[in-house]
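pinned: reference chain
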Amino acid sequence: MTCFVYAVRCNFAQPDLEDQWNAWYSGPKLEEMLRKPHFLSVQRFTAAALDTRRKYLALWIIASPDAFTTEEYRSDWGFFAWTSHIRDWSRDLYRATLDATDPLFDIGPGEALYRAGFDGRTDEAARSALERVRTRRPGVAWLEAAGLDRHAPILGLKKIAATERVAPLAGPDAPVETVFAPLTRRFVASQN
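pinned: its structure tokens
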């Protein structure tokens, strides 16, 4: 069963409020979003190694791009009172040939998430670079953008051990690579 990966990345610009924002995002915000149609699961992460310029990542698994057209979503999405503190925000949608319950979407204790993205490139440039990078990153699930910002037209994800050290790729074809540590467990919608 094909699912979609909704990747939200950002930074938070108000250090004295960051703990409060994380408590809201990792609690009430996640619960609220998982009550909306087509939202299946979510897990939040913080950048731990390699390119850490974008600190936060939320990986939502949704059943359909229709999730963004429902009245429930359109009536109350966003960061609300926290909006003025959000920086470097992007939201990309990727089509996955993986099942929504794939272990890749559940990063547990002692694990991390490797993320590679051809950020800021055209679709054609990203595909060309991927052909030269793919064999250098075995085991990575490569997903193509299916909508929203399309900040990174191709996204690579891989579950790794938290202790694994990843040497960054070099050269003009290299993607932006980040190792993310889980901030939350994986939350799953009770029904959709």
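why pinned: The first strand starts at residue 3 and ends at 12. The chain has one domain: 3-188.
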